[in-house]
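G.,

No rush on this.
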Amino acid sequence: MTVCAIEITTTAPFTIAADGSYAARLAGNGEARYPERWTLAGPEPYAVPLPLAQPEEADSEVLALADGRVLIHRRVAQRRAFALLYPTGGAAAGPRTGELPLGSVEPGDEGVRVSLLPPSPDGYGAFALAASAAGTTVWQVAGGPFGQVARIPGRCSGGVWLDRTGRLLALDRELDGTTKAVAVDLGRGGEVSPLLQIAEGSDDRLLLADPDSGLLLIRSDAPGEPRLGWGVLGSSLPVRFPECLRGEAGTPFAVQPGQALMPESCGVALRLEEGGIGLWRPADRHVFRLPAPEGWLGTGLWSPQGRLHLPYATPETPCGVTGLTLPVSPPPPVRLDPPPAAAPRPVPLQQAPL
């Protein structure tokens, strides 16, 4: 199966499976890169290297699945190949990594870019995006038959799942000079419907979503400048742009799950451009700025109980996870009522009018 494609774009180097059980990254550096799988569903995280006969290129992408296998998207000669990697229990002298080829994408138009989408919420499906100005194709590359599942007019980027089944996908579509987030129903042949329409000429992108609460994290220039905002999926209320996020040069990377019908109480983690981490709730008027742990891998995972787990790798700890808890927000400024009018001063009897 083929599609016009020539260029690979690299997403986050560390990806976490939808259920938080496994993660994957390209470890090593220079010409000695290899996939590495992290096991997170245990008392202590540990990593398993998955090297093959040849090292991986720096533009290869990996994605962790909930069954412990790692999807890899790599450049192979003139093709873009997808395969599943897994550790084997063979003899010590034998291979340590098993590989199951899934399919490939043939090269074509120079303007087409291919990248993996975030892990499917069901934990087993995986999808890729092949985008160009002429149109965008969504490919299923794991968890089902390898092939095209949607074709969308315009160049699409991003990729945010809106449900827990892996059916509704939000993409940022550039069309007629503006970028608007649209919803793509993969269960209905890629049917496209508008998702964000804040202003007619504004660029409205969806950055993150939580299906439990419906919380949406948005970046839009509708207020006159690019700003972070939030809304609720399916709500008639307008998108809000909190003052505490004005000028915030950060990207949300994790939302607290399990807060059904309570989007204001969801913890949100932001990756700040200066290198730190921002913690915020929509109900708060304050962003907590905290230093990132040494060797932080740039992403993380919220627990339903409000604990943010951050993976990191250092020479001393090549596979580590540390936790943060969202501090209690400071109380809002006290708003005093206007002081009561002064009571009339008693007039001494001798000065009182007769």
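When you get to it, here's the other one too:
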Amino acid sequence: MPANGVGSGLQRAQSFMILTTLLYRASHLTVGFLAVAQHRAGHPVQYVCLAVALALSLLVYGAALRRGWFEPRLVWTDVLVTGCALPYALYAWGEVRETPAIGWAMLLGGSASSLAAIVLKRPHALAAIALLVVTHLLGYHLVGASGAVLGGHLNSLLASAAMTAIMWWYLRRQGRLLDEANARALAAEHQKARYAERLDHHRALHDTVLATLTTLASGGVDANAPEVRERCGREAAYLRRLIQQTADEVHHPELGAALEDAVRSAESLRLRVTAQYHELPAVPPEVAAAFADAAREALNNVRRHAGTNHAYLTAAGSGERGLLVTVVDRGPGFDPDDYVPGFGLRGSVYSRLAEVGGRAVVDTAPGEGVRVELRWPG
């Protein structure tokens, strides 16, 4: 049967069986070399038979290694030639009349039966093994082998087929279980990715569209102002992409540009932002995006809740290649013990920073304003 895909559990099982049966055949060929050299050194027919067995083995296993599994027609050829024909050829033309001299050819029937048991369909496999059994019975009868020798070789032939078939059944079963487990893991990972994507869209909608609509509804800005209309246009384009399921916000890979985009977004809603940047470190794009989104939401919170139209944003390097961004307002502040963070603070600030290995801290007190501190690494 063909391979089931690169890296699949079934293909791993197939590769293991190819290697196992190859080693089994190699051990039988080694016995053949030693037997020919010891019992009938120099006889050409025996060397020809050994060469045929070697060449056919290379053909069968070479094709299996290239294709990922055995070809049934080559396995049938191996059974008929290596397992059945060679013993008779040795007797007829190789002057073999002794049990040890023909034993190595009979031994090859064991590895031929193991291939038949795992490659051929069940009726064909039983027929092939029956042919090998008949070859053993007739071949050993011709050389006058004892019942013990005949029984031992028949037991080896049948045991080889049975054990290989059982091993192949077990490996295929484990391979299927592994493939099913991998498929379930991939499905779960895909579901997790879809959930993360929906959460990102939820956060983006909260930080952009919902923030804009809330500000417009409160009457705090002029809806006809050019900067407000420009922001509404950007967010309408984002909604269109989201509806078309192609939403993929473009995040600036450079930290300064990403933070500036967050500042301009807040300023388009009439929040005055004093921004200062000092020796910004180079950070991964996902960290820059997370900090920009968290800073945008912190500025949105100033606009919505602080009762002031002025905020301060400072970004600077911290330690060795670390980053610290603070958003400060001079509003009335609040008592943190009596405050339950909403979705904006939990999802758009805390969670975003945590996902990239950062940390967010809110420092406030009644009458003291609010300081949102964003750090990376956390």
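The first strand starts at residue 272 and ends at 278. Residues 1-6, 245-252 have pLDDT under 50 and may be disordered.

Enjoy the weekend,
O.
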